[in-house]
Amino acid sequence: MPDLATVLQQSLDNLEQMHLRRTLKPVRRDDAAHIIKGGKKLVSFACNNYLGLTHHPAIKEAALKALEEYGTGSGASRLVSGNILPYRELEERLARIKGTDAALVFGSGYLANVGIIPALIKKEDFILMDEYVHASLIDGILFSGAKWLRFSHNDMGDLEKQLLRHRNRHRHCLIVTDGVFSMDGDIAPLDKISALAKRFDCWTMTDDAHGLGVLAKGHGSRKLFGDDVHIDIQMGTLSKAAGAYGGYVCGSHTLIEYLQNTARSLIYSTALPPVVIATGIAALDLILKNPEWCARPLQKATLFTRTLGLPDPESPIVPLILGEAETAVKAALKLEQRGFLVAPIRPPTVPAGTSRLRFAFSAAHEDEDILRMAEVVAEEGWAHR
Ligand SMILES: *Cc1c(COP(=O)(O)O)cnc(C)c1O
Question: In the chain, count of helices (H) and strands (E)?
Fold first, then answer.
């Protein structure tokens, strides 16, 4: 029998052959817009640092203050050693920014998704998810043990068809979607989804990891729609535009109290370090006070797409679909040689044959860097496939 290392090496070699092997590359970051890699300073379009808040002086100051005041680690789960002080402030701000009764902070967005869904949805229940939802939602859905099906991306006809066919065979039904799709940059039609949910007696959940801080004056994707558009479970993360860390869910008092009692990834995982919580608070304060700054990432993305004659983007995420994994990897390498860090996104993150360059625009980007990068993209013909 071959030993463990031999078996694993074979898998790694297969990935390599398919241009799907991933490696962790050492980099350094000393400002919000650049990455230093192999001694070379690159403008980064690979970070989700949409507002450049990772290096904001007011936020760094808040973090230092919390470090002095509370120390480093938090010691135990929130339910065991006590709910350290700044959590309440952070959750109060999250509920305010999302317009809900209450909020609950988890260790990360991933932990939030794998905790929330199994707490709410059981074997007798049913989940319909958009085919492009984030991997952490899929893992949460698998953890729940419920029956699930995918509906075609943003296709309300397909969602309705599946509800007609399956809804009445199950107890509860949850419809799950990203607010902003992380690899495509488009937005879910939350008005239509919430109307279908009402008609078919379903609950709704959005993952707005890429909406907070950048859409609807920073409030996120739900606020792009009217106040009658109700989403039961609004999940997101503080690791992207907020430049901090930690996942969250916003909703009714009852939902939050129920999740405090039942979400295993909250109960059995240590609370966030106080510094991280303070960073999140300072970031949300800046977001609430600076709607013009929150509009910038989309303006930067629009500068890029208009320069290239592409359709206007819906979010600061712009994909250029190139096809094969190898093509995307080579394109990213070429951009790197010209001074730009752009993520090549390959299967299994995206479907086979749709490997792409994924550009994430930030308020911290200089217009001239964006224009220079657009020039490279135009030269290579990547925008016209
Ligand atoms: C990044 C991301 C997550 C995970 O959030 P973390 O805080 O990084 O764990 C979840 N959902 C979506 C859509 C994401 O893009």
Answer: 13, 14
The residues pairing with 150 across neighbouring beta strands, listed in sequence order, are 129
Is the CB of 110 within 6 Å of ligand 1?
yes
The ligand 1 atom at the shortest distance from the C-alpha of residue 210 is 15
Confirm or reject: Cβ of 212 under 6 Å from ligand 1. Answer: no
Please compute, for residue 70, the number of CA atoms within 13 A of its CA located in the half-sphere on the CB side: 21
For residue range 78-115, what is the model confidence (pLDDT) as tens digits? 888 777 779 999 999 999 999 999 999 999 999 999 99
**Tokens encoding 54:** 């990772």
Is omega for the bond preceding 189 within 30 degrees of 0, making it cis?
Answer: no
Q: What is the dihedral of CA 47, 49, 55, 59, to 10 degrees?
A: -150
**Closest CA to ligand 1's atom 1:** 209
- Measured in residues, the chain has a length of 385
Ligand 1 atom 10 nearest Cα: 109
Q: Which residue has the tokens 């999302």?
A: 98
* Positive or negative: CA dihedral 46, 32, 27, 271: negative
> Residue 18: which residues within 8 A CB-CB, separation 6 or more?
325
What pLDDT shows up at residue 81?
79
Q: Could you give the CA distance from residue 283 to residue 300 in angstroms, rounded to a whole number?
A: 21
Give the pTM.
0.95
265 CB under 6 A from ligand 1?
A: no
| Tokens matching residue 64 | 């230092």
The residue with tokens 């403008």 is: 43
In tens, the pLDDT along 213-227 reads 999 999 999 999 999
- How many whole angstroms from 327 Cα to the centroid of ligand 1? 26
| Largest separation between any pair of C-alpha atoms in the chain | 63
Mean pLDDT of 62-72: 95
Q: Which residue has the tokens 């398919």?
A: 18
Distance (Å, whole) CA 257 – CA 119 = 12
Contact predicate 240/210, CB 8 Å: yes
Query: Residue 385 — very low, low, confident or very high, per pLDDT cuts 50/70/90?
Result: low
Q: Dump pLDDT digits (tens) for 279-316.
A: 999 999 999 999 999 999 999 999 999 999 999 999 99
